[in-house]
Fold this protein.
Amino acid sequence: MNPPTFFRPDESRPPRYRRGWVDDAVAAIEADQCRTADTHLIRLIVPALAGIDIYLKDESTHPTGSLKHRLARSLFLYALCNGHIREGTPVVEASSGSTAVSEAYFAQMIGVPFYAVMPRTTSAEKIAAITHYGGNCHLIDDGRFLYAEAAALAARLGGHYMDQFTFAERATDWRGNNNIAESIFTQLQGERCPIPDWIVMGAGTGGTSATMGRYLRYRCYPTRLCVADVEHSAFFDAFCKGDSAQTCDRPSLIEGVGRPRCEPSFVPGVVDRMMKVPDAASIAAMNVLTRRLRRPVGGSTGTNFLALCRLAAEMRQGGVAGSLVTLICDSGERYRQTYYEPQWLAACALDPTPYEAALTAFLDSGAPLQLDIADAGQPQGR
Ligand SMILES: Cc1ncc(COP(=O)(O)O)c(C=O)c1O
């Protein structure tokens, strides 16, 4: 593979051909990517599911601990190359935490002030990480006002509102350039089923699923995309009803995924199927996967894994051999005080026990997996 080519700040070039600070900022981000390794694609060994290969793309190993590292890098490059961020421009973001951690890292790298507008319920670990990278946290009580608060703060500061929920889908290069989809297919090359039957993703902005779905179509892969939505979120209804105006009154308990509105970056036309996973089932799947990997994963990884198991159960029932891929979105270390804390679960009236028993039986023995969760294919006519 040829080494990537990009301009470095080159003092020998005549000044009129340099954009000074912006050139340096872009070069710094590109250099950081050069130093950063790709994330692992882990094969989960499940002897009871002979013929069905399960892979987990481990996005928790990015320098800032989640798949949002990719998005933050893309959003900064997009904003720099669009002239939205210049030397000293304060950058403001609305986030449930993970994106803000990653953006704080890139803001510090290029030396601009960073402000994260987040729900007051955001985990202490994420707040500490943002502060560690020099970011400022602006916590609000009602998550529905996240967007307006972030836009207003950016206006007050004379800064740039990054707006991941709008720009995630277009900031990422969906045709390749080592995006997450291309990385998965490259890493599968040596496997016995290198073209997965299904890829399962969650949706926060919807940007990762948009990148994945577009890439599958662009490369003409027969792989289908399943988006796993959570209990308190508007995406599933928007998909089923073909109506992006759907809303949800309660905030999602699963950090990083589930939104009160169908975000502009969610592209339903590239999604083949959606499931709506109850929060207790997400926690159950998180626990089951954590035991199998012998390290803690986050709640949204549980959401993904639950949907993947349902698809694997269908394949098993239909006698279909093949492969399935989903993401480890972040580590469970961020959620020690919440999803891994029995008192927190009790306060939220979440009982993962029945789901855990069903999933464990399925993975241990291949027993049929009976789960009462809403599930919908692409509505006709789209
Ligand atoms: C922690 C976390 N953040 C965000 C997302 C969603 O990504 P996106 O914003 O691209 O939809 C996920 C997806 O599963 C996630 O687990």
Notes: Confidence is low (pLDDT under 50) at residues 1-5. The two ends are 39 Å apart (CA to CA).
